[in-house]
Amino acid sequence: MLIWIINGPNLNLLGRREPEIYGHRSFEQYFEELKAAFPRLDLRYFQSNHEGAILDHLQSIGFGQSDGLVFNPAAFTHTSIAIGDCLAAIQLPCVEVHISDIYKREAFRHHSYIKPYCIDSIVGQGLDGYRSAVAKLSEYLSAREARTQS
Ligand code: DQA
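^ thats the input. predicted complex w/ DQA below
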């Protein structure tokens, strides 16, 4: 199973960025642990600070080119109709992740343009939220595969 993890703007600064909110580890460090936790999955990682680059990447992995997506669009969550439209278009099961609990922060973080296009949304679990999201997604994909085979 090929699953992409995509992080949006400023998440390349994890470990250095507001550690009291986002923790002390970089995503690159954490990603090694994540891959080790799911040895049977093909996990790949993409991060960009640019909305257009994220859209191009989403389009390139959709339409059957991969099996699923774990996605933290960071600030674009709250602003990007284009990213929501893209998720609606590409037919790729997606789990939304936020390291912090966006619903307990400023009001402008309470709305997500991507949530309607996701099979689940995980917030406030720190970096471990990515692990929960990969587990959710692989369960969902296995159940879907079992249904199509029966
Ligand atoms: C975030 C929450 C967003 O509101 C914020 O803009 C981020 C990170 C999170 O992971 O908690 O950059 O997506």
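The first helix runs from residue 19 to 22.
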